[in-house]
Amino acid sequence: MRRPLALAVAALALLTACTSTGSSGSGDGVSTPGVAGSYEPGTLRVLASSELSDMAPVLDRVEKETGIKVRPVYLGTLDAIDLLAQGTADGKYDALWLSSNDYLRLRPDVAKKVVSETPVMSSPVAIGIKSASLKSLGWKPEQVTWAQVEQAVQDGRLTYGMTDPSRSNSGFSTLVAVASALSGAQSALTDADVTKAAPRLKEFFQGQKLTSGSSGWLAAAYERRGNVDALLNYESVLEGIPGLTVIRPRDGVVTADYPLSSLAATDTTVREDVRRLAEALRTPEIQREITERTHRRPVVPSVSPASGLDTDRRRELPFPGSRSVADGLLDSYDNELRRPSRTVYVLDTSGSMEGDRLAQLKKALTNVGGRFRGREEVTLMPFGSEVKDVRRYAMDPDPRSGIEAVRADIGALAAEGDTAIYTSLEKAYEELRTDRDMFTSIVLMTDGENTTGSSAAQFEGFHALLDPAQREIPVFPILFGDSDRGELEHIAELTGGRLFDARQGSLDGAFEEIRGYQ
User: Fold this and answer.
1) Please, which contacts does 311-316 make with residues 24 or more away whose CB atoms are closer than 8 Å?
2) Among 186-190, 430-434, 491-495, which range has the highest average pLDDT?
3) 1 CA to centre of own chain
4) Which of 201, 389, 422, 444 is most buried when burial is the number of CB atoms within 10 A of its CB?
5) Which domain holds residue 93?
6) Are residues 151 and 251 in the same domain?
7) pLDDT value at residue 1
């Protein structure tokens, strides 16, 4: 099992990545854990799950009514728990606000850092399915089970997207829900339950055609592509996507309860502010605004869920009984259950990368290499005035030998030449012409503007002539050094990718965050 080491590497990388603070922020994926300033009376520095960025208007209202200001830093739930475990959050954050503390409670080293928790709202994992697909399958929404979903996948009648369980709690909760339902577990999931369900789980995840590190990008990719039948995510996310019928499977769900938690490293004054904030968020008026604005369910009995939210009860599926089971489930998903991934890394090694920039690139790539999964295929494509080399690596079945080969070639990278961004991207798409049943993407890292080879307009023409399957391959550019934000944003928008900013942090954090999209 490689997950504990991989998580440690991820947390260390994220410490130096760019920061998203304040009541705004994209909430799209893992925003990195910068410090939200030093403690100020009446201002709480909150380490929060990324999807909570939609609570900004609610928090603004609470501030006006109570005087308590929230300064959130958004991060993936599992990554936030790792930061707590390493002690990095001590003295830098006043409260924790995750989608769930279930995984946290499996880690005694982290659980002792939380001294209180107050559920604020809830949202179960659900299935959002296109109306045409629902009709074709002949399903009655109130009767659908996870077993029916598995059978539809097995019959080739259903495809779906979900977030990466290693990055996003919605993905992790979905994985737990499916494993619990398909194993028939009647209590906390065990290793035996996971082993028993493994063949059915593998069949189930063959239907996953879209992955993401965040719910926001997942929804955008779903709408852009239009060829995926359903999404698995929190009910609250799915309710906001037009054209989906939201189904809570009859055999059970896993529910996020968004507890606001005080941290043990804080004093009584801070904890009192956290208590007051939680109390304000649970007033009937605020609970009504939360459910109407976010489609999450109120936790105060006197407040009804927003119109359209099904009020029939569903069984709460059992969470893993130990950390080893949870981590084993994640490891199995990464290396055995999910569709494998194929990535081309288009790497700027032009003359401007000489010195510290090239050293940073080598370090970041070496670190991310430790995260490669079993069955993954990786291509390194360093470029300057043209593509210098094309190196291919297979991580099947054991990634260790492939990882060592990647690291050896990373060490040999040298900086020279001009910067042929678009010509190199064209070469990457040509490399990915083969139709393979894999999650396929291109990662572009450059420290400058395009100076030679194909132009932006020529690349647009090239991209337009790709076959439909190739046009769906996203490019994830990394903003670094003197690269042009507008140029890279255009590449991301054209290809359906997403821009990652390493200029406010590190390449390590950017490459690590992209792993959730591969």
Assistant:
1) 312/142, 312/248, 314/124, 314/248, 314/249, 314/250, 314/252, 314/253, 315/251, 315/252, 315/253, 316/252, 316/253, 316/254, 316/255
2) 491-495
3) 21
4) 444
5) 3-121+258-298
6) yes
7) 40
